[in-house]
């Protein structure tokens, strides 16, 4: 009977999942497109919030059915709402002797350093679209000395502009090599912070010393594999402030003389995360708001005030640094991107349990969300569970962050974005699974011999395995490590032409001659790299024209064109080069070009237009 009481809620939840999956495409809002934004959604009459609504319904009703059925069948095993909200926090301090754990932390840090210093340097051809966004954003700022008033920023101030500027400053060379080395460094700094996150979270579960170390090592190995091996070339550092937030959140649950500082730091992340990466910042601000609600329910008013102080202080500092004009443009730019980005850039999320493209990956992700929710529900409502309230608060906040984060996978549902969007949820699942494993009765499974008596040997072997993987992979070697300094110096000094394909280089060489007397250039062909290579500012703030969305955006583009009056304008020679080409998406701009410009010459895949008269 006890087995059935636990089994029935799971079966009912599974049936709800399957039912919602069957009617996935029936869950739909009336399509509207008052701004005539052209993209995948407009092609299929797909409302921009359809996938978000489907995801919410899938997760909410699956977990709701589990909760109701569990409460109905197990009334004698659950806590009251009052007991759940006001469960007494335990005092977790840093009094344990963690010498062994610190040694393992040091080993992981050394592995990360070895990985960075021995990597084959990223000498592949330049990604004209994605990398050009970052390079030309930086050169635009250098030439215009303006932020949002000079460039229409898509991803975030640091991502689009400042990171590349910092790279050029650190390495003393304005080159593609400098930018790429810095990005590689940022990814490894991010992995280092993830290891610190694993180190920190292992404290709040109040485990025995050996089990705490096992937890830390297991989570660290997974995170290194996930971020530094499987998805090495993703810009994982965009999630940097989310990891910092989680570290601070953990530290709010550990009593020490500086623990209140973490509340202030959490508040300060409100604006910092938005400047680092806009969408991640929105997810983080929503999570901070939820955290404040949790604190309010637990009557932690002083802690709330500290968070609000952190928020206000950093927002005011930001306003003072950039000035009112840039501040207003930041708001306008950010709201426009958040409102319309999904409409022109979205890819429809696949139906779970179907044969649609990327459905298998998406289904696994949704199942992990449900499993995380079910596990947390059990920890929250069951009496006599072994998880302390400090850990529960952290896990629930992380679960909420993971839900917001999956908007990345919902908005642009290709394989890569689904993985990135589910990263927090995946790590949370590994945390819950690892905790469950280390809390098992080891003697029952004869594992106490391994984890207690042979503890150091087993864990040393685990770390040696990952180190050996690095050493044996094609991208790493001791020779690379020993020649690190000379390789870096040579790489950052490489001429930018080295990274360009021959056809593009031919185009650039001719454009240097054509634009030698122009202080600015402008294009409409999804090539943001040209501004950086030619060292010319954009004649409008839309150096990444792919981001233009509404009719108002097109009108602003035309107004800035009329002000700057560029003599030369670049478009695609093939109007059907892309499914949603600029010619198709921007009819107002096309009409303006037909009126003001005439064909001058074709170079490779580009048509050069010359201003009439």
Secondary structure blueprint with pairings:
Layout: H1 2-22, H2 40-43, H3 50-73, H4 81-85, H5 99-118, H6 130-144, H7 157-171, H8 176-201, H9 209-230, H10 240-251, H11 259-276, H12 278-297, H13 301-345, H14 359-381, H15 389-405, H16 407-411, H17 415-421, H18 423-438, H19 448-453, H20 455-472, H21 478-482, H22 484-492, H23 502-514, E1 520-523, H24 529-534, E2 537-538, H25 551-564, E3 568-572, H26 582-585, H27 587-596, E4 597-603, E5 606-611
Parallel strand pairs: 1-2, 1-3
Antiparallel strand pairs: 3-5, 4-5
Verbal overview:
The protein is mostly helical. It is built from 27 helices and five strands. It has a five-stranded mixed β-sheet with strand order 2-1-3-5-4. The protein is globular and about 85 Å long. The protein starts with a helix and ends with a strand. Mean pLDDT is 89; it is low at 444-449.
Dominant shape: globular
Helix content: 55-70%
Distance between the termini: 88 Å
Q: Determine the strand fraction and express it as a percent band.
A: under 5%
Oligomer: single chain
Biggest sheet architecture: 5 strands, mixed
Number of contiguous helices? 27
> What structural class should be given to the helix and strand makeup?
mainly alpha
Numbering strands along the chain, what is their spatial order in the largest sheet? 2-1-3-5-4
Radius of gyration: 27 Å
Mean pLDDT: 89
Number of strands: 5
Which spans have pLDDT < 50 for at least 5 consecutive residues?
A: 444-449
């Amino acid at each position: 009977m006890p087995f059935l009481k636990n089994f029935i809620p799971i079966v009912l939840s599974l049936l709800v999942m399957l039912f919602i999956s069957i009617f996935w495409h029936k869950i739909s809002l009336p399509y509207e497109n008052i701004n005539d934004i052209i993209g995948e959604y407009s092609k299929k009459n797909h409302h921009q919030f359809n996938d978000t609504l489907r995801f919410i319904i899938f997760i909410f009703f699956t977990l709701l059915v589990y909760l109701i059925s569990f409460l109905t069948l197990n009334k004698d095993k659950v806590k009251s709402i009052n007991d759940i909200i006001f469960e007494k926090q335990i005092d977790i301090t840093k009094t344990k002797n963690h010498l062994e754990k610190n040694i393992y932390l040091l080993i992981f840090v050394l592995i990360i350093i070895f990985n960075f210093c021995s990597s084959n340097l990223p000498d592949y051809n330049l990604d004209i679209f994605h990398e050009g966004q970052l390079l030309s954003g930086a050169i635009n700022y250098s030439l215009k000395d303006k932020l949002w008033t000079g460039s229409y920023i898509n991803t975030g101030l640091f991502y689009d502009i400042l990171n590349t500027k910092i790279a050029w400053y650190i390495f003393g060379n304005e080159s593609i090599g400098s930018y790429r080395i810095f990005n590689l460094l940022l990814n490894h700094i991010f992995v280092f912070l993830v290891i610190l996150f694993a180190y920190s979270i292992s404290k709040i579960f109040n485990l025995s010393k050996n089990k705490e170390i096992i937890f830390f090592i297991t989570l660290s190995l997974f995170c290194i594999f996930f971020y530094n091996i499987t998805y090495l070339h993703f810009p994982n550092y965009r999630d940097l402030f989310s990891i910092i937030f989680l570290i601070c959140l953990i530290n709010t649950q550990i009593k020490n003389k500086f623990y209140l500082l973490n509340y202030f730091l959490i508040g300060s992340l409100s604006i910092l995360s938005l400047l680092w990466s806009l969408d991640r910042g929105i997810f983080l601000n929503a999570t901070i708001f939820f955290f404040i609600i949790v604190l309010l329910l637990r009557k932690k008013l002083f802690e709330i005030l500290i968070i609000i102080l952190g928020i206000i202080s950093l927002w005011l500092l930001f306003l003072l640094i950039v000035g009112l004009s840039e501040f207003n443009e930041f708001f306008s730019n950010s709201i426009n991107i958040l409102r319309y980005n999904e409409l022109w850039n979205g890819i429809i999320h696949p139906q779970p349990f179907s044969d649609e493209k990327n459905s298998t990956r998406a289904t696994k992700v949704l199942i992990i969300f449900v499993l995380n929710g079910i596990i947390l529900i059990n920890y929250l409502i069951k009496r006599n569970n072994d998880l302390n309230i400090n850990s529960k608060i952290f896990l629930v906040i992380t679960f909420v962050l993971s839900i917001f984060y999956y908007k990345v996978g919902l908005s642009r549902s290709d394989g890569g974005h689904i993985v990135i969007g589910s990263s927090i949820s995946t790590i949370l699942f590994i945390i819950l699974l690892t905790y469950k494993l280390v809390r098992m009765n080891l003697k029952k499974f004869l594992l106490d011999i391994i984890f207690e008596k042979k503890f150091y040997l087993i864990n040393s072997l685990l770390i040696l395995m990952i180190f050996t993987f690095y050493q044996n992979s094609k991208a790493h070697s001791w020779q690379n490590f020993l020649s690190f300094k000379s390789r870096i110096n040579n790489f950052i000094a490489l001429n930018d032409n080295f990274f360009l394909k021959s056809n593009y280089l031919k185009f650039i060489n001719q454009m240097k001659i054509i634009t030698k007397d122009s202080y600015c250039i402008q294009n409409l062909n999804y090539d943001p790299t040209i501004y950086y290579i030619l060292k010319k500012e954009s004649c409008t703030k839309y150096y990444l024209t792919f981001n233009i969305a509404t009719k108002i955006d097109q009108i602003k583009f035309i107004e800035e064109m009329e002000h700057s009056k560029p003599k030369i304008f670049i478009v695609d020679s093939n109007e059907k080069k892309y499914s949603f080409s600029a010619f198709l998406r921007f009819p107002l701009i096309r009409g303006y070009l037909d009126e003001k410009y005439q064909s001058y010459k074709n170079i490779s895949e580009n048509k050069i237009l010359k201003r009439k008269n």
